[in-house]
Amino acid sequence: RLKPVRQRPALRGVLKRFGGLVKWDGTWGLDDSAFDGGVVSAFSYTRSRIAEDQTSNNVPPTLLMEGQAEGSDLLKNAYFSGYFNILFAGRNKKVPEKDVLFEFCVDPSLPDTTVKVQGSGTNQYGA
């Protein structure tokens, strides 16, 4: 019997400070292959608070130094609220999310100026 494959959504975007807000905007797909001609949709999240636990955060010092220009806390693990769009019956549907924990970490398979972000939280579709 075949086991169902659990897809891991992939989000690609820019994390930036706008005045007093930290925002992450970009596009997402059901997995990395979506960015190779598949279906992608917009997302936007705004940081609500920095997480107390930073143990999973292993962003390299070179990126932290680049982040200093935006503020020393830019790449800290934090809770974000916002939305992602999903194509449903031929139309974009906005799915709100609140208090999603985004953890920033290194992935050696990514370019040096890119960090991996692991997210956890729940929405109307589950965890």
Q: What do these coordinates show?
A:
The structure is a single chain. With 127 residues, this protein is mainly beta. Helices cover 6% and strands 46% of the residues. It has one helix and six strands; from the N terminus they run βββαβββ. A six-stranded antiparallel beta sheet has the order 1-2-3-4-5-6, with no helix packed on it. The chain is globular, with a radius of gyration of 15 Å. The model has no long low-confidence stretch (mean pLDDT 84).
Question: What is this entry, summarized?
Answer:
The protein is mainly β and 127 residues long. Helix content is 6%, strand content 46%.
Layout: helices, strands, pairs:
Elements: E1 10-18, E2 21-29, E3 41-50, H1 61-68, E4 78-88, E5 91-105, E6 116-120
Antiparallel strand pairs: 1-2, 2-3, 3-4, 4-5, 5-6
Mean pLDDT: 84
The share of residues in extended strands comes to over 45%
Terminal Cα span: 25 Å
By DSSP, the count of extended strands is 6
Largest sheet features = 6 strands, antiparallel
Oligomeric state as shown: single chain
Order of helices and strands: EEEHEEE
Helix count? Answer: 1
Characterize the overall form: globular
Uncertain residue ranges: none
Comma- or semicolon-separated keywords:
6-stranded antiparallel sheet, globular, 6 strands, 1 helix, 127 residues, mainly beta
